[in-house]
Write a structure and sequence with these properties.
Chain B: This is Propanediol/glycerol family dehydratase large subunit. Chain B: InterPro entries: B12-dep_deHydtase_bsu, Cbl-dep_enz_cat, Dehydtase/Dehydtase_re, Diol/glycerol_deHase_lsu_sf, Diol/glycerol_deHydtase_lsu. Chain B: It comes from Fodinicurvata halophila. Chain A: This is Diol dehydratase small subunit. The structure holds 2 protein chains of 2 kinds. The termini of chain A are far apart. Chain A folds into 2 domains: 80 residues, no CATH class; 62 residues, Orthogonal Bundle (Hypothetical Protein Yqey, Chain: A, domain1). By secondary structure, chain A is mostly helical. Chain A is built from 7 helices and no strands. Chain B is an alpha/beta fold. Chain B has a 7-stranded mixed β-sheet with strand order 14-20-16-15-17-18-19. The longest helix of chain B is centred in the middle third of the chain and has 21 residues. The radius of gyration of chain B is 33 Å and the shape is elongated. The two termini of chain B are 23 Å apart. Classes of the chains: A mainly alpha, B alpha/beta. At the A-B interface, helix 1, helix 2, helix 3, helix 4 and helix 5 of A face helix 2, helix 5, helix 10, helix 11 and helix 12 of B.
Chain lengths: 142, 761
């Protein structure tokens, strides 16, 4: 069964398909228990959602008629591979007046595509670049 | 009142009374569409339109694609589905409006069509519905079947101990989500730590957010303290958006960022935000909000917090403003978004306006009826007072009970509230000590546990609180460190509860539309969809939930009434003896007044509703009769417990033809033997405010009637108290008990009163 085969019938996954759930380091739900906490065996990575889980939720959302929500989950799946600083750096670039011009955003898109294998995020940022240029949103405000 | 009243006035004094009402503190604004003061019809609202050529949107709501601002561009790219648009935009608005209130049109059909409708069209459709239709359509269209509610947990000192205690109470009250924010921005990590621990006390699964600066909020979430966010604000004009320092793309980026960290997210928008920011473009509140909501759906947010929010008081100042708030909530659910339906920023000083505003949401149900119910006192609400706050919590519980409407909350009893508060404080205090963040002493713990609000607490110094926050952030303390500390302190259940919620993060189940956690299960629009299709369908409280809704504090029953009366019995026995003298006969004394007492008077009931012992009342009545030259004779009836019939029966036995009917709760009547049962001489029906002086005067008047005089009737005046609400439950129970004591063949019984102590006033 692939991530795209998940549908509303498999939801909630933690209840219906708990055996498929993993943390970012591969731990199962059963591995995440109080003894593991007490003995310091867990790291925050073990509590991080995986791209697979997000793609499954995207598939469930799509099956429930929520394509826009599914698209967001798919962008999020790509974003799991971005370190926090990179997430915030690009967020900052997308705010009005932060990029000096269109090229800053196009460079960010290129990084997303090449370094993080995130084509949907890249396309999204490129679209922002086009609109920002048209609307004069690169103007500095402070 | 010895002052001579002045009649000098240049206006009707009723206006003074009106001026004194809290309502007059509300300021109302004239409708002025040119300047943005219009709920539904802005001066510059566009006509709905959509031209699609070769699958490309050329014109939307009268604006050519070349002139699109960033909001139009985003809506056109991500909200509008060209495959549905032609069909949906061709439908007359009235047809769509009627479909919204037609229980036979499935919700899915309407959410499908919404994906093909422009902001102006969506606004035009919902504007056609009146307030009742809006509420009905909202009830039909909201995404999740089971209603829920969200609490604010904050305080004026940013006191972590109180935050933990109040979070635990909010969980016990049934809130699905709790939201905190700070008075001092630097305290965010301390707030997050405290609420997170408090929310794990008692039960697992309550979602928690710490409303903070965007980047920091995401960091707090990544450290595992919070599970959702709702601060992703969007605006309906480009200028307002830029002024808010964001764009639809930057906000959509955040939407994906939260999901990528397993954190539930909803956007925030709402009427009048653009007007408050000075960038309204002469558009109506509703049209601008329609743009916001199309954006939110387009960016893939699962839900929204709308319905005014911070702009609610301004929306409420306009004609139709409160109807507009309902309309924009309806738009949210029509667009298939989870809706935390406002009712947070208190829109009025008038309790009555607030109560009226909540009703449609309460009876329609909502994913989160309040997007911030102040679970704390008003002055502790760091978001500003909500529609309902700690002070008014029980009113909300009673409204749920009145309408058998599920507002998501339940009653909490005093002893478990205190135990939960203490447990939360102990757990947090242990963690603070264990992680070397702060030392909490017993006085602080106890003062916070019992305090209603922060004005009453003797707690951590404000510098210590800021230091806790700084250390948590600097040392990179995560939820894992907190759970280990709790485990060392023996707070095993709290660790289990925290772990439960963290594990849910991995499946991503609570990222779906309208997700909350109930009794260990994720409920969302996916597995608990609203399928309302008329009476008998949709959400109905279960038998168990109905019982929970009914279970408020201090509910009277028959046993309570009798138990209370029994506590008075021995004191009355020390004051009076009712001696049974056999069957009563008609009297001949022309000056006598017969007092007919009810079957339970002095046998099961011992004081009036005003609190006068019945012995004192009878002694006072006797003195009143005698002071006016009459003679009192007492007869007990058991064929009736009704005041009028007691009075008339007494009059028929009286030598003067005048009788007094007296019920044990203190209700009395003066009757004449020749009158019809309900056509008495004088009646004293408001027992709760009938004082001994009134009973004295009543006795005197009865004696005067007996002598053939026409005394001035006695008026028992009150201050307009809602006596019915205060007493009717007790009255009905007392009367039912007395009525059950009556029997048809009963004969009147002569009673000789023996007073064991002297009369007193």
């Amino acid at each position: 069964m692939t991530d795209r085969d998940f549908s509303a019938a498999d939801y909630p996954i933690a209840e219906r398909r708990p055996e498929t759930v993993r943390g970012a380091r591969g731990k199962t739900l059963d591995d995440l228990n109080i003894e593991a906490v007490a003995q310091g065996e867990l790291e925050m990575e073990d509590l991080r959602i995986t791209p697979q889980a997000l793609l499954r939720q995207a598939s469930i959302a799509r099956s429930a008629g929520r394509a826009a929500l599914a698209d967001n989950f798919e962008r999020a799946a790509e974003m799991t591979s971005l370190p926090q600083d990179e997430v915030m750096r690009i967020y900052e670039l997308l705010r009005p007046g932060r990029s000096r011009g269109k090229q800053d955003l196009l460079d960010a898109a290129e990084t997303l595509r090449r370094q993080f294998h995130a084509p949907q995020l890249a396309g999204f940022v490129e679209q922002a670049a086009a609109v920002y240029e048209k609307r004069g949103l690169f103007r500095r405000r402070y | 009142m010895t002052d001579t009243p002045s009649f000098q006035a240049n206006r009707w004094r009723r206006f003074d009374d009106w001026d004194a009402r809290a309502l007059r503190l509300d300021k109302f604004a004239v409708e002025d569409p040119e300047n943005g003061f219009s709920a539904f019809e802005g001066a510059a609202d566009p006509e709905p339109s959509l031209d699609i050529v070769d699958g490309r949107i050329e014109v939307m709501d009268g604006i050519p694609a070349t002139d699109f601002d960033m909001i139009d561009s985003f809506v056109a790219a991500y909200h509008l589905d060209p495959e549905i648009a032609a069909e949906a935009m061709a439908m007359p608005s009235q047809t769509l409006a009627r479909m919204l209130v037609d229980m036979n049109v499935p919700r899915e059909e309407l959410t499908r069509l919404a994906r093909g409708l422009t902001p102006a069209k969506l606004a035009e459709v919902v504007a056609q519905l009146n307030a009742m239709e809006l509420a009905f359509a909202y009830s039909k269209m909201r995404a999740r079947s089971t209603p829920g509610n969200q609490a604010h947990v904050t305080n004026a000192k940013d006191d972590p101990l109180q935050l933990a205690a109040d979070a635990a109470v909010a969980v016990a009250l049934g809130f699905d989500e709790i939201e905190t924010t700070m008075r001092v921005a630097q305290n965010s990590w301390a707030n997050a730590l405290a609420c997170c621990i408090g929310s794990a006390v008692g039960q697992a699964g309550t979602l928690f957010q710490c409303s903070s600066e965007e980047a920091e909020e995401l960091q707090i979430g990544m450290a595992g303290f919070t599970s959702y966010a709702e601060t992703v604000s969007v605006y309906g004009t480009e200028s307002a958006f830029v002024d808010g320092d964001d764009t639809p793309w930057s906000k959509a980026w955040l939407a994906a960022a939260y999901a990528s960290r397993g954190i539930k997210m909803r956007c925030t928008s709402g009427a009048a935000a653009e007007l408050l920011m000075g960038f309204h473009e002469a558009k109506s509140l509703l049209y601008l909000e329609a743009r916001c909501l199309c954006l939110q759906r387009g960016m893939g947010a699962q839900g929204t917090q709308n319905g005014g929010i911070d702009g609610a008081p301004l929306a409420g100042s306009m004609p139709g403003g409160v109807r507009e708030l309902l309309a924009e909530n309806l738009l949210a659910v029509w667009l298939d978004l989870e809706c935390a339906s406002g009712n947070d920023a208190r829109h009025s000083e008038s309790d009555m306006r607030v109560g009226a505003k909540i009703l449609p949401y309460l009876i329609a149900g909502s994913d989160l009826i309040c997007s911030g119910f102040g679970s704390i006192l008003k002055y502790d609400n760091s978001f500003n007072p909500s529609s309902f706050n700690g002070e008014e919590l029980e009113e909300f519980l009673v409204l749920q009970r009145d309408f058998e409407a599920d507002g998501g909350l339940r009653t909490i009893d005093g002893s478990s509230a205190l135990a939960l508060r203490r447990q939360a404080i102990d757990a947090l205090s242990f963690v603070l000590k264990d992680l070397e963040l702060a030392e909490v002493d017993e006085t602080m713990k106890q003062s916070v546990a019992v305090a209603s609000g922060s004005k009453e607490t003797q707690t951590l110094d404000s510098r210590v609180i800021t230091e806790i926050s700084r250390r948590v952030a600097e040392r990179g303390i995560t939820i894992l460190d907190v759970m280990r500390a709790l485990h060392r302190g023996g707070f095993r259940q709290e660790v289990e509860n925290l772990l439960f919620l963290l594990k849910l993060r991995l499946s991503g189940d609570y990222l779906q539309t309208s997700a909350v956690v109930r009794e260990g299960r994720v409920l969302s629009a996916v597995n608990d969809p609203n399928r309302y299709q008329g009476p008998g369908t949709g959400y109905r409280p279960s038998a168990a939930r109905r019982k929970e809704l009914a279970d408020i504090r201090d509910v009277l029953n028959r046993e309570d009434v009798l138990r209370f009366e029994a506590t008075l019995e021995s004191a009355e026995q020390a004051r009076i003896e009712y001696r049974h003298m056999g069957q009563a006969s008609p009297g001949t004394d022309r000056s006598e007044v017969v007092v007919g007492i009810s079957p339970g008077l002095g046998t099961k009931f011992f004081q009036t509703l005003a609190g006068h012992p019945l012995s004192t009342l009878l002694q006072t009545l006797k003195r009143g009769i005698e002071d006016a030259g009459g003679v009192m004779r007492v007869v007990r009836f058991a064929h009736t417990a009704d005041t009028s019939f007691l009075g008339l029966s007494a009059a028929r036995l009286s030598g003067s033809g005048i009788g007094i009917g007296l019920q044990s709760k203190g209700t009395a009547v003066i009757h004449h033997r020749d009158r019809l049962p309900h056509n008495n001489l004088e009646i004293f029906s408001n027992a709760p405010i009938t004082m001994l002086a009134h009973y004295h005067a009543l006795g005197a008047n009865a004696a005067a009637y007996a002598h053939g005089d026409s005394p001035a009737p006695i008026f028992v005046t009150g201050d307009g108290e809602a006596l019915g609400a205060r007493f009717h439950a007790r009255v009905a129970l007392i009367y039912a008990i007395e009525t059950a004591m009556t029997y048809d063949e009963a004969v009147p019984e002569e009673i000789a009163l023996h007073f064991k102590e002297p009369a007193h006033d």
